[in-house]
Design brief:
mainly alpha, about 50 residues, 3 helices, elongated
Length: about 50
């Protein structure tokens, strides 16, 4: 695999990750914390939630 192919593959991986992240984020704090910590939004709410 050439460097050009590796970069194209990595670029596609980053693009998919950005699309996935944008689908999760809705402008509130809970999805942001979930994305950053890896804790499911349901677990965050079960543990007391986040005051906006």
């Amino acid at each position: 695999m050439t460097m050009k192919d590796c970069l194209a593959l990595r670029r596609e991986e980053i693009h998919r990750a950005m699309i996935d992240a944008m689908q999760v984020l809705d402008g509130t704090t809970t999805p942001r914390v979930s994305l950053l910590t890896g804790i499911a939004p349901e677990d965050i709410n079960r543990l007391g939630g986040i005051q906006e």
